[in-house]
């Protein structure tokens, strides 16, 4: 019983759409790895890394900040130790968590799910996007932030999520080839997006059922 991965640009409504889709399907919900706070932490890490060699590298700080989000046990120090080895270990841990969730049926929001599951033919991959100015307005409308905070968060969160997917999976988060369906969510009602995704998932799963020959 697989499910759906939903990749959402900041303000594109992933935090609203994904739980509604999961609820309608009766699936578990696995939340995103890159929040606005983590993106802010990563931005600070990058600034510090550029100040001098005595600072931790961006990759080290990147994985140190992300380590707890992979549900690892005391994995921060190990992940901060080395770039390549850390990335491989972190990716394996993240993939295991997603695959375990999908085995029982799940909607995965973020976490590089589309890139992680790109070789699986039983997982529907969705991308939610929109023009930056429209996503800022949507973030204010559906979120808990004001316009100034949304405008500040958008480039940082988008960049952090893109970096996450690129560094772990070597893929461009905006590559349309990663997705079965992309929705310009600010131009739609969020319930319409839910309905479209559910219809797409129904068609997607039906197409995988073996056909009976008379």
Please give a handful of descriptors for the protein shown:
214 residues; alpha/beta; Rossmann fold; five-stranded parallel beta sheet; 9 helices; globular; kinase; kinase activity; transferase; EC 2.7.4.14; Cytidylate kinase
Molecular structure report:
With 214 residues, the protein is of the alpha/beta class. The chain has one domain (3-208): 3-Layer(aba) Sandwich (Rossmann fold). The chain has 9 helices and 5 strands. The chain has helices spanning 14-25, 36-49, 58-66, 76-81, 83-103, 113-116, 132-142, 147-169, 190-208, and strands spanning 3-8, 28-30, 106-109, 123-129, 181-184. It has a 5-stranded parallel β-sheet, with helices on both faces. The two termini are 27 Å apart. The model is unreliable at 45-56 and 67-82 (pLDDT under 50).
Structural class: alpha/beta
Distance between the termini: 27 Å
Tally of discrete structural domains: 1
| SS summary, helix count | 9
InterPro entries: P-loop_NTPase
Keywords: Kinase, Transferase
EC number: 2.7.4.14
Organism: Flexivirga oryzae
Entry summary:
The protein is α/β, with parallel strands linked by helices and 214 residues long. It is built from nine helices and five strands, in the order βαβααααβαβααβα.
Describe the secondary structure blueprint for this structure.
Layout: E1 3-8, H1 14-25, E2 28-30, H2 36-49, H3 58-66, H4 76-81, H5 83-103, E3 106-109, H6 113-116, E4 123-129, H7 132-142, H8 147-169, E5 181-184, H9 190-208
Parallel strand pairs: 1-3, 1-4, 2-3, 4-5
